[in-house]
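Let us work through a complete example step by step.
Step 1: write down the sequence.
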Amino acid sequence: MDETENVFGTVFKVDPAPLGLTGFALTTFMLSFVNAGIIGSKGGTGMAISFAFAYGGIAQLIAGQWEMRRGSQFGFVAFSTYGAFWLWYVFLEVAAHFGVITVTNEALGISLILWGVFTLYMFVTAIRLNMGLMFTFLFLWLTFFFLGAGAMSGVVIITHIGGYLGILAAAFAIYTAFAVVTNSNHAGRIPLGPGLGSKKK
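Step 2: predict the structure and record it as tokens.
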């Protein structure tokens, strides 16, 4: 296979980005369905933890290391951080369930907003990459801030809004992954859209 440019603007032979994006998307879909109140938290949270450990956590960490080997600063930081985020979520849920730690609403809310701060600065970079990533990070940034506000305030509707925003973030992530995989075999038929301020290729 000839070398070409991947979704993060780096040269590659096999692109790890779809693995990381799909791991992120499916896990985010599952947890966001719970946060939005679409499925109940009793069974849904347990399933989200399973997704978060195997696909959201481990798979994204692997994708992040591959992105580092490909020379993608953005891909390395994004996948490694969100892989760590999902493992943090697993630890938090399991440790709280067994009474190892105590999680207050205020502490949880601040933690989610801090994840949102990280996502905001990644969004600033994603703006110039392509539209698929730009909207993924935009809605993810909003997701974290609404979930954080919902946790601190205890207002369920705010958490539900965060859940629906998470569904949108996951939808753009899975679309971007689909486009990368499909375009690698069908010569660029699925549009991602140029980043703002970048020259359309």
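Step 3: interpret the result. The chain has one domain: 13-178.
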